[in-house]
Design goal:
The complex is a heterodimer of chains A (250) and B (553).
Chain A (H helix, E strand, L loop, with lengths): L1 E6 L1 E3 L6 E2 L6 E2 L5 E3 L1 H17 L3 E8 L4 H10 L3 E6 L7 H12 L6 E5 L10 H9 L3 E11 L2 E8 L2 E8 L2 E5 L11 H7 L4 E5 L31 H10 L5
Parallel strand pairs in A: 1-6, 1-8, 6-7, 7-13, 8-12, 9-12
Antiparallel strand pairs in A: 2-5, 3-4, 9-10, 10-11
Helix pairs in contact in A: 2-5, 3-4
Chain B lengths: L4 E3 L10 H4 E3 L8 E9 L3 H17 L5 E5 L13 E2 L2 H6 L12 E2 L3 E7 L2 E5 L11 E2 L2 H14 L3 E4 L3 E7 L2 E7 L2 E3 L5 E6 L3 E9 L6 H9 L10 E10 L7 E6 L8 E9 L2 E9 L9 H8 L3 H7 L3 E11 L11 E2 L2 E3 L1 H4 L10 H21 L5 H7 L2 H8 L11 H13 L19 E3 L16 H7 L12 E2 L6 H10 L5 E3 L10 E3 L9 H5 L2 E2 L14
Parallel strand pairs in B: 2-11, 3-4, 3-15, 4-10, 7-17, 15-22
Antiparallel strand pairs in B: 1-23, 5-9, 6-9, 7-8, 11-12, 12-15, 13-14, 16-19, 16-20, 17-18, 18-19, 21-22, 24-27, 25-26
Helix pairs in contact in B: 2-4, 2-9, 9-10
The chains are: A alpha/beta (250), B alpha+beta (553).
Chain lengths: 250, 553
């Protein structure tokens, strides 16, 4: 089974991000970067599929700056076989441009499965997986939380409002991974050693800006300060009154 | 316990579990096994300097070496914390082709001031000769460590972050490597899905660069009966990083308030940038008042006019805590090398308290160890060569010159200060001989009720809960407790632990209630400062990713 996983290097969710002086990008200094958590589910699922088929290849593709090699190495340490960095210092804000670059790379090989994270935690666009599928003319199931594959047929489950949707699809297909699909493994010591020797191809790409332009970034408004009503049984009446009249949640 | 009674912390402290820490190579219980030429425990300044120097030696003089560095933090630098003003001497030796401007320093020290504080007032003191910092640099140790890590990886060193070494693997009297801590265990220590068994890393040489109060370094010294003239003594430092509205143009040190006179310590205030200020309070763990709380004292300290003016309108962006080995020359293990093993940096105790420096000694010890290890692997020379080089080096000379200075303060602030001044004037020759010290846990504590100066009951400023959040600690709530608490801890001692621990790991239970344990333990809060390992409950390493995530500490 030949599987491609597309991953993104994003700021760690615990990082305190700062808006750069231009007002429309993030200040990179002191920011810790990690693999997008949804992409970890995708990498893990690819490794499990390959292990189950006991043959095949998992390739990891990433669009990003030179430093994203580190993100690819993490996937290689988890067990992926090779990596491709589509190197560009700027990642276009337009998801269609990103999809175009990734599709151009993917179409030269015939894959059985193409996996993405459901979304990237930095821009929340949810679009690149589906757009890439469209560009490649492949079926796409987004936000899957369970996956079964039998021969050239797949069955995926999606968690939807109030229930689970079951979708059948033919391979090859593009799938985007949601939380709950699996529990991603940590790289083992031997995996980290082996990752250093695995092939990582760096291909410079020309990324045009596309039709999107980021005009401004602003932090969310400060949360209003909390209020301590009192302590013990005596405070209950006032708390109920405030919840009803001020917070209007009762 | 009645009012004003004394207790000795050592009485309630569990012994080091040597039978668990020293394991025969090949013992059952490990998953993967990996063989390296050299394994270094701890990716701090000492461990990384050792790896870099060794990789350079191997590149120029062969043979090729497989070098691995194990680090308990999830990412480089996340467990590293220091003041810090750095003497660039050792970095220059490690990178002879680089300039100071290439190093990851923030700014050179141009102005400095030392104050004696009283409540509300400050008295400018002449800067003691040991504390002159011109020519040195303000820096964040996290940033130095990340930079060193990049350099090491460029040289082919394997850095394994998220792999805490938990046990020493031995063959007869020789150290053969280490076993890492398991990951993914539940509260009761049973493996949960995705759990990872311990790994055995065997190597021809193991370098213990675990940092302050190193677990395996302690275990090795005890196991091989390597004594020191004095027991090692420690201080606890609590540090905050502030974005300030007002700029600061100098490094500041203070003595006196809010510390009681029978505690040794002081504060530091360093500008990383004009409006990014590192500040902290350091207190020797031989303090007498069981109610003393370093974190609370730091909160008081910030209300002094000297600080209040600087911090007004500013914001705390990080918080952290760490112990410091303060014993100096007489607390160094008699040898820092054995069969298959060397001890580096803070784990060996290379800190000079009078100049408030240890980072360059850590780096220097790493460089010396690398040279000895290289000769050991290439020409089968004994690792004791490391001790020979160290004993003849400026590291030993520096520590010898100030050998009794910190120790004099066991007699209190004023008497200690007088003696230290005489030592300074006589170049360390006054007085003859050596000050005898007790281990911190052997020093009796006064346990009295009520609020006294220096032991405020009600923290003002940042609470310990908020402090732990600001340390970046996001340890999984369901890990097994990594702290070994002695049996039958009385309420007074439990209160002592609760005050001592800056991260709120220990909480007083409901003492009045029947059958209630006096101590509640919030183990995930722990930021690995090791203070209670010195005075009470023992610390052991947790799974990868646990503890703080320091960024610019």
């Amino acid at each position: 089974m030949k599987i491609a996983v597309c991953i993104k290097r994003v700021p760690d969710s615990e990082t305190r991000v700062k808006i750069a002086s231009d007002g429309k990008s993030l200040d990179d200094s002191g920011v810790k970067f990690v693999m997008n958590p949804y992409d970890e589910f995708a990498v893990e699922e690819a490794l499990r599929r390959k292990e189950k088929a006991s043959s095949g290849e998992v390739a990891v593709i990433c669009l990003g700056p030179a430093a994203a090699q580190e993100t690819i190495r993490t996937a290689l340490a988890m067990g992926a076989d090779r990596g491709i960095l589509l190197q560009s210092d700027r990642i276009p804000a337009d998801p269609f441009e990103v999809a175009r670059i990734i599709a151009a790379e993917l179409k030269s090989t015939s894959w059985d499965l193409l996996l993405f994270g459901r979304m990237a935690i930095d821009d929340y666009n949810h679009q690149v997986g589906a757009l890439t599928a469209e560009l490649l003319g492949l079926p796409c199931v987004t936000a899957i939380s369970h996956l079964e594959i039998e021969g050239t047929k797949g069955v995926a489950e999606r968690e939807i409002e109030g229930g689970i949707e079951v979708v059948e699809f033919p391979l090859p297909a593009v799938l985007t991974a949601d939380k709950g699909l699996n529990e991603p493994r940590y790289p083992a010591l031997k995996g980290i050693m082996a990752a250093k020797k695995k092939p990582l191809e760096v291909k410079p790409v020309q990324a045009s800006a596309g039709t999107f332009e980021v005009v401004a970034l602003s932090p969310p408004p400060d949360r209003k300060e909390g209020k301590i009503v009192g302590e013990g049984v005596g405070a209950v009446g006032e708390l109920v009154r405030l919840l009803r009249e001020e917070a209007k949640v009762l | 316990m009645a009012k004003n009674e004394q207790f000795v912390p050592a009485r309630y402290q569990p012994t080091l579990p040597l039978d668990k820490l020293i394991v025969q190579d090949g013992a059952a219980g490990a998953g993967d096994r990996m063989e390296l030429d050299v394994v270094i425990v701890g990716a701090g300044p000492a461990g990384l300097a050792c790896a870099i120097e060794l990789a350079k030696l191997a590149k120029t003089g062969g043979p090729e070496l497989n070098i691995g560095v194990l680090e308990k933090a999830e990412a480089l630098g996340e467990h590293s914390l220091s003041g810090a003003v750095v003497n660039p001497r050792a970095l220059r030796e490690l990178f002879p082709d680089l300039q100071d401007s290439d190093f990851p320093f923030r700014a050179p020290v141009t102005k400095e001031a030392v104050y004696l504080l009283t409540k509300g007032r400050k008295i400018r003191l002449p800067t003691p000769p040991t504390m002159h910092n011109r020519g040195y640099y303000v820096a964040s140790l996290c940033e130095i460590v990340r930079w060193l890590g990049t350099k090491a990886e460029e040289l082919g060193v394997n850095i394994f972050t998220g792999f805490p070494a938990a046990q020493l693997l031995v063959r007869d009297r020789a150290v053969a490597g280490v076993r890492t801590a398991a990951a993914g265990l539940d509260r009761d220590g049973r493996p949960s899905p995705g759990a990872m068994a311990p790994n055995d890393i065997v190597a021809r040489v193991t370098a213990l660069a675990e940092g302050t109060r190193g677990l395996l370094a302690q275990a090795w010294c005890q196991w091989q009966r390597v004594p020191s003239e004095n027991p090692q003594i420690f201080a606890l430092g609590v540090k905050e990083l502030w974005e300030t509205k007002r700029p600061l143009d100098r490094v500041i040190h203070t003595l006196g308030w809010p510390l009681p006179t029978d505690a040794f310590g002081g504060s530091f205030v360093y500008p990383l940038e004009p409006n990014l200020v590192a500040l902290g309070l350091v207190v020797g763990l031989d303090y007498r008042d069981a109610g003393l709380d370093v974190h609370v004292l730091l909160q008081q300290f910030k209300r002094h006019p000297l600080l209040a003016a600087l911090l007004e309108g500013g914001e705390v962006v990080e918080w952290g805590a760490k112990t410091i080995p303060e014993g100096g020359f007489y607390s160094l293990p008699q040898r820092r090398a054995g069969d298959g093993v060397v001890l580096l940096g803070d784990a060996a105790g290379f800190v000079d308290v009078p100049s408030l420096k240890g980072i360059h000694y850590a780096i220097q010890s790493g460089i010396y160890a690398a040279r000895a290890i290289f000769q050991n692997l290439k020409n089968a020379e004994s690792l004791s060569r490391y001790d020979d080089i160290l004993n003849k080096s400026y590291v030993a000379t520096d520590l010898h010159r100030t050998r009794n200075m910190r120790l004099a303060f066991r007699d209190g602030f004023y008497l200690g200060g007088l003696q230290a001044a005489l030592m300074m004037l006589t170049g360390g020759r006054f007085p003859n001989g050596k000050y005898r010290m007790h281990a911190d846990a052997e020093v009796a504590r006064r346990s009295s009720s009520g609020v006294r100066p220096g032991s405020a009951e009600h923290p003002d400023g940042i609470s310990k809960v908020d402090a732990v959040f600001k340390s970046g600690n996001s340890t999984r709530d369901t890990i097994p407790s990594h702290l070994i608490v002695g049996p039958d801890v009385p309420a007074e001692v439990a209160r002592f632990y609760a005050r001592m621990c800056p991260a709120g790991v220990y909480e007083l239970g409901d003492v009045g209630a029947q059958h209630a344990a006096p101590l509640r333990i919030n183990a995930p809060n722990c930021v690995d400062c090791k203070a209670t390992d010195v005075l009470g409950p023992r610390w052991t390493p947790r799974e990868r990713g646990s503890g703080p995530k320091y960024k610019r500490m």
